[in-house]
Amino acid sequence: MTSPEGTAAGFNPTIHEPNRLRICALLDGVTEAEFGTVQQRLGFSASVLSKHVAVLAEAGYVRQRRAVRDTRRRVWLSLSPEGHSAYRAHVAALQDIVAGGGGEGRTDTAAPE
Amino acid sequence: MESQERRPPEPLSPTEARTALRDAEQARRSLDTVTVPWWFTCALAGYMAAVALVQMLPGVWGVAFSLALVALIIPLSRVTADRMGFSRRLRGADPALLAMVGAAVLAAMVAGISLGQEPGREWVWYPVAAINTALILALDLFYRLRARRAAA
Question: What pTM value is reported for the model?
Answer without folding.
Answer: 0.78
